[in-house]
Amino acid sequence: MTGYQIFWPLLAHVALVYGLYALLGMRRARMVRAGSIAKSDYRENRGEPAESQVIKNCLANQFELPVLFYACCVLLYITDADNIVTVGLAWGFVALRYAHAVIHVTSNDLRYRSPIFAAGYLVLAAMWVWLAIWMAMG
Q: What's the CATH number for 7-137?
């Protein structure tokens, strides 16, 4: 595939991470202003309130499975294995990460969050399987 299409979904995920950091900062600032936690408590990472802990957990989750996504996108590109299908899968993975994050920082309802995570897991697995097949054929 010509161009850098495989990297647009990757950049969209980066935007999600930056958005979550902004949300975390806003929630923490609001809690400090409200007096429900001292600013120094964040410096020593003591007693993160549930209102911001859920975002902190969501952020940590963006550096777990998505690390494999970044590696796969780069490998698909450098091996010339990226195509319309892999780019579509990459966009699907990122869309599922956005949905997962929205649920995580709002209701955090596992009835919805878990299946969305599993779907992203399977989409990413399909990307890796395609890469393996491509390399085996090459």
A: 1.20.120
- Give the CA count within 13 Å in the CB-facing half-sphere of 136: 6
66 C-beta neighbours (distance < 10 Å), count:
20
Q: Which residues are within 8 A (CB) of 124 and not within 5 positions of it... i.e. 6 or more apart?
A: 65, 68, 69, 72, 89, 93
Q: Which residue has the higher pLDDT, 59 or 43?
A: 59
| Percentage with pLDDT > 70 across the chain | 99
Handedness of CA 91, 62, 104, 110 (dihedral sign): positive
Query: Model-level pTM greater than 0.85?
Result: yes
